[in-house]
Amino acid sequence: MSEYRTDLAMERTLCPGGMGDGVCVDTQKRGEMEITWVRIDSPEAARRLGKAQGVYWSLTHPRLPALSPEERMTVAKEVGQMLRLLLPPKGDVLVLGLGNRRMTADALGDRVVSGILVTRHLKEGRLRGVCAMAPGVLGVTGVETAELARAMTERLHPAAVVVIDALAAMETSHICTTIQLTDTGISPGSGVGNHRAGITADRLQVPVIAVGVPMVVYASTIVRDALCRILSYENPEESAAAMARELAGNPPEDLVVTPRNIDELVQGIADMLALAVNTALQPECTMEELSYYLH
């Protein structure tokens, strides 16, 4: 599994050995949207897939970056409904936007947090208490994100933590078209091989829901996909993967690719995710009321 570098559980299940005991997958089509549930039930399955035990929910829409305002609202409601199901029904929620705001492809979490309705300081009875922060990255702050998350959780005592981050995908078709939610938390930087301490329920002692969208893909993956289309060997995928490692070397692990219009894509998806999180956390407010509070 190690050479299949991806943060998406649904992609892991498609790799050799991805299915089997301890892994349940269910996929539903809703128009152009595809909803996929992946449940990893055993430690052995978790090791096999390289993903923590838990539930992974993903929504894929091929036109996600270019949806109309009405379609964006439909997707936001779908994501918000799922997020609400994963969260405890009451109590304050801490929203953390991970990533480096100075790198566009890694700025998703920071931009989502800027659109979150923060209410912990208000005394409005029907608004759930929400606080939000973008803690930055270790290379900028000198502090592990997991350390900051734990300190804030111990101080604020939220009922749950929502963590938002950019992900890495294995398939180019999933870049900026897939949203994943999971109750397993997240390891910042794991998608690009920069493993940091995890932000998980075990570490924070509260439920941790991770929300992410793939923004990058490995160059070796792009080469592999291209070679799969032109090679005519008996096992083209295996041959293409080996050739991709050779062609994309020096060093293949460090070379990642993102779309050239990533600025536009990140901002559009961030706005959509902010709306989804706000609707999940403030179910008694209409879309119009949320817009009024934010502006």
Total strands: the figure is 9
When the domains are counted, the total is: 1
- CATH domain class name: Alpha Beta
Choose one word for the global shape: globular
What does this structure look like?
- The longest helix is centred in the C-terminal third of the chain and has 20 residues.
- The protein has a single domain, classed as Rossmann fold.
- The protein is 37% helix and 20% strand.
- The radius of gyration is 19 Å and the shape is globular.
- With 295 residues, it is an alpha/beta fold.
- The mean pLDDT is 85.
- Strands 1, 2, 3, 4, 5, 6, 7, 8 and 9 form a nine-stranded mixed β-sheet that branches.
Outline of the structure:
By secondary structure, the protein is of the alpha/beta class. The chain contains eleven helices and nine strands.
Identify the notable features of this structure and list them briefly.
295 residues, alpha/beta, Rossmann fold, 37% helix
Task: Summarize the topology.
Layout: H1 9-14, E1 23-30, E2 33-40, H2 43-49, E3 54-60, H3 69-86, E4 93-97, H4 108-113, E5 130-133, H5 138-141, H6 145-156, E6 160-169, E7 178-182, H7 201-204, E8 208-218, H8 219-230, H9 236-247, E9 256-257, H10 262-281, H11 287-294
Parallel strand pairs: 4-5, 4-6, 6-8
Antiparallel strand pairs: 1-2, 2-3, 3-7, 7-8, 8-9
Helix pairs in contact: 3-10, 8-9
